[in-house]
Specification:
Strand order of the largest sheet: 12-13-14-15-16-17-18-19
Number of helices: 10
CATH superfamily of the largest domain: DD-peptidase/beta-lactamase superfamily
Keywords: Hydrolase
Protein name: Serine hydrolase domain-containing protein
CATH class of the largest domain: Alpha Beta
Helix content: 10-25%
Number of strands: 19
Radius of gyration: 26 Å
Number of domains: 2
Structural class: alpha+beta
CATH topology of the largest domain: Beta-lactamase
InterPro entries: AmpC-like, Beta-lactam-related, Beta-lactam/transpept-like, DUF7586
Shape: globular
GO molecular function, one term: hydrolase activity
Order of helices and strands: HEEEHHHHEEHEHHEEEEEHHEEEEEEEE
EC number: 3.-.-.-
Length: about 450
């Protein structure tokens, strides 16, 4: 049996096109374009339009609204990884005199700063940025906070205007130029711009009770640009999705991207369907958790979602202010592809080499009377799995000093080390003070508190 080809099967392509066609028709949008990415490659694209025999290509620009925030967040995390800021820094540490200067960088990234959702004055999305010439103009002087900082998620567009100003201060040039040089050029995204470039879609409002349209203004929002200014294409956003899924050493490490998609503030309610990380939204749908972002500006809606488990991403763009739920369509495209063509597991292969000492560590270990099994993986990595049903295994990364660092679940960041007896033999494993021995309550000198000298007894 061979792997599936890069192109999707005809039945899958038909199902994807049908979903886009329904979105365009029932959502009453002039046009709709979408793409599916599998393991970093575009495997399908499709579009529908109100014009017969004509549909936009994946290289036509649409305004992507709040998807812009994902780009700004990556710029901020680059500054953090370079040591130019800490996520716990108050904004005022880097932008003295800025509004809401006590909000931390992490709170601004995750919409947990408590700041108001919108700017004072006229609706910023439909007015020129010249109406807000100074950073102080993006927040109300007397009441910028709506909630205590750090306590809850409350979406704030002005918060991302402040983050854009932070990037400009620390880089010494406009955020759009930093974006082009640090993100767009390395990723080959030459059709993502601050202002529209031909060919681009026009933005429209469709009357709620009649099939007629009204053009929406195409504004330059100025200082509010980091909240939603960008224009892009399905092809460029497919590249962005591939980057967000895997990372790129020229832009941002995969480990930092994984940090960005962890919920920063606890989701509200037991049946939560959405949460927010550091610049990335999380969506729970169809039994899977997706990460990415939705976007809207007058005349446009957009969605980009990634399923790490399925190795899939989808992008959807439309040019109507309201109508098709474009972000949900993008999520549906992932579900359709996963249902028709589920991801194939990687073929089993033996390790290229084996360390006999590590091999000897594998097998059963006991924390008290609780059984675990230790498995050896690639690159000297280990996995410790409880034998009890319904509990999750933890992976460990080998370090140069002979220890291992936990990667997930309860032991994330904790240290696992092998403790040896005086004769050099393995005595036990120490997992951040938890002792694992080869038998339940093994050697008394290894188990904290000792072991009853009478040993196990029956009543």
């Amino acid at each position: 049996m061979t792997d599936l080809p890069d192109e999707l099967l005809p039945t899958t392509r038909r199902a994807l096109l049908h979903r886009v066609a329904v979105a365009q028709a029932e959502g009453r949008t002039p046009s709709f374009v979408a793409a599916v990415v599998r393991d970093g490659k575009v495997v399908w694209s499709g579009a529908r339009s109100m014009i017969d025999d004509h549909a936009p290509t994946v290289d036509v620009q649409y305004r992507i609204g709040s998807l812009t925030k994902t780009f700004v967040a990556v710029l901020v995390l680059r500054l953090r990884d370079e040591g130019l800021l800490d996520l716990a820094d108050p904004l005022g540490h880097h932008l003295p005199g800025a509004p809401a200067d006590e909000a931390t960088v992490a709170q601004l990234l995750s919409h947990a700063s408590g700041l108001t959702a919108e700017t004072p004055g006229p609706w910023w999305e439909r007015t020129e940025g010249a109406l807000r010439p100074e950073l102080a103009d993006v927040l109300e002087d007397d009441r910028p906070l709506r909630h205590p900082a750090g306590r809850r998620y409350h979406y704030s567009n002005p918060g991302y205007a402040l983050l854009g100003a932070l990037v400009e201060r620390l880089r010494g040039e406009p955020w759009g130029e930093v974006l082009r040089r640090e993100l767009l050029e390395p990723l080959g995204m030459d059709r993502t711009t601050l202002l529209p470039q031909h060919p681009h879609a026009g933005g429209f409002a469709v009357h709620p009770w009649a099939d007629v349209m009204l053009p929406e203004p195409l504004t330059d929002t100025g200082l509010m640009g980091p909240a939603g200014q960008l224009w892009s294409t399905a092809a460029d956003l497919a590249r962005w999705a591939a980057f967000l899924a895997r990372g790129n050493e020229k832009v941002l490490a995969a480990e930092t991207l994984a940090e960005m998609r962890r919920p920063a503030v606890g989701p509200e309610g037991a049946d939560w369907s959405g949460a927010y990380g550091l610049g990335l939204q999380l969506l729970r749908r169809d039994g899977r958790v997706l990460f990415g972002h939705s976007g809207s500006m007058p005349g446009f809606t957009a969605g980009l979602w990634i399923s790490e488990e399925d190795g899939l991403a989808a992008v959807a763009l439309s040019n109507a202010t309201s109508g098709p739920n474009t972000p949900i369509v993008a999520a549906d495209l992932i579900a359709i592809t996963a249902e028709h063509e589920p991801r194939l597991p990687e073929p089993w292969r033996p390790l290229p080499s084996v360390d006999e000492e590590l091999l000897a560590l594998t097998g059963p270990w006991y924390w008290g009377a609780a059984g675990h099994v230790l498995r050896l993986g690639a690159d000297r990595g280990l996995e410790l799995a409880p034998l009890a049903a319904g509990t999750r295994a933890s992976r460990f990364r080998a370090e140069a000093d002979g220890t291992w660092t936990g990667l997930d679940n309860y032991y994330a960041g904790e240290t696992l080390r092998v403790v040896r007896a005086a004769d050099g033999s393995v005595s036990h494993l120490d997992l951040n003070s938890f002792v694992l021995t080869r038998e339940p309550y093994g050697p008394a000198d290894a188990v904290p508190g000792g072991v009853d000298p009478q040993g196990w007894w029956a009543g």
